[in-house]
Write a structure and sequence with these properties.
Elements: E1 34-38, E2 45-49, E3 57-62, E4 65-66, E5 70-73, E6 76-78, H1 80-91, E7 95-100, E8 118-119, H2 127-133, E9 137-139, E10 144-145, E11 148-153, E12 168-171, H3 176-188, E13 194-197, H4 201-210, E14 218-222, H5 223-232, E15 236-242, E16 244-245, E17 251-252, E18 255-256, E19 259-261, H6 267-276
Parallel strand pairs: 3-7, 3-8, 12-13, 12-14
Antiparallel strand pairs: 1-2, 4-5, 5-6, 8-19, 9-19, 10-18, 11-14, 11-15, 16-17
Length: 294
């Protein structure tokens, strides 16, 4: 049975079902994709055959809990990353096949486990993650940047991590919001901040909106996600836009990249070429990132 993706900006997405994973249905593609690469110093072009896990199909690991980057509902997949990667698949003559993953943590590792050719959904490139992925995974060029923020009940003032003393904050385990929050709590020497985890940003933010005095004070995420949550959940507003803090206490910019299965030969190079000159500009624009360290 075919289920359509709800694309952004009117773009059509060809998709299919993988019987071994929670993916969306569609046609089995058989086309081999060609990526054109320039030969050193000349205008000559050579065709490079892309290799994917399944010939003619681009399998993409996506996490549905990060709106607006990836969303799944009864109508299928939508969001900035599915739209962008579907345009890439179409350019390469591949059928786009989303592979749903239930948790965000370590989604960047899944191409190395042969679960998908590419992993997306707002993955920040960090030195620790690059080391973790090793030789089996390539990181693409950057396509977006983000800053940190909090979703709070309207009228709540939070200007620094010290304002979180004695409170509960909700976030997504393993996300850069989690890394930033734990690093800042440690750097400030706070011992009375409780961090709780959810696998859906909207669920976490609704907990904040509906909480009484003893409930969570904030949901931590990126600016793009927080803006969507504040627009869609009554009584919620964004506050404290800041850079990401790493575990060593340094602040850094947050560029997004895709991870690519190294055995999917030619794919990372083709995706980098698409990022440089996309047929569909990234729907989120360049992002809300800050130039860090300041």
């Amino acid at each position: 049975m075919s289920i359509s993706i709800a694309p952004l900006k009117g773009m059509a997405m060809g998709i299919r079902r993988n019987a071994g994973a929670k993916t969306v249905a569609g046609m089995i593609g058989t086309a081999m994709a060609l990526a054109l690469s320039a030969c050193g110093g000349s205008n000559a072009e050579t065709a490079t055959t892309l290799t994917t896990i399944e010939p003619g199909v681009l399998k993409v690991c996506l996490y549905p809990g990060f709106a607006p980057f990836a969303i799944r509902d009864d109508g299928g997949w939508s969001g900035w990353d599915p739209a962008y990667l579907s345009a890439f698949a179409e350019q390469q003559g591949l059928t786009f096949e989303p592979v749903e993953v239930s948790t965000f943590n370590d989604i960047w590792m899944r191409p190395g486990n042969d679960e998908c050719d590419v992993a997306g959904t707002g993955i920040t490139e960090t030195a620790e993650r690059i080391q973790q992925t090793g030789q089996s995974i390539a990181w693409t060029d950057h396509y977006y940047s983000v800053a940190r923020s909090l979703a709070v009940r309207a009228g709540t003032t939070i200007d620094s991590v010290e304002d979180l003393a004695g409170t509960t904050v909700v976030t997504t385990k393993g996300a850069t919001a989690d890394i930033d929050l734990l690093a800042r709590i440690k750097a400030a020497g706070l011992t009375d901040v409780t961090v709780e985890y959810v696998n859906d940003e909207a669920v976490g933010t609704r907990r904040v909106a509906e909480a009484g005095p003893d409930g969570p004070i904030a949901f931590a995420a990126g600016v793009g996600s927080i803006d969507v949550l504040a627009d869609s959940i009554p009584g919620i507003e964004a506050t404290w836009i800041h850079c990401m803090m790493l575990p060593d206490g340094t602040e850094t910019s947050e560029p997004f990249a895709f991870t690519v299965r190294e055995q999917s030969t030619g794919l990372a190079k083709a995706l980098n070429a698409f990022i440089a000159a996309p047929t569909l500009p990234y729907p989120g624009g360049p992002g809300s990132g800050l130039d860090c360290p300041k």
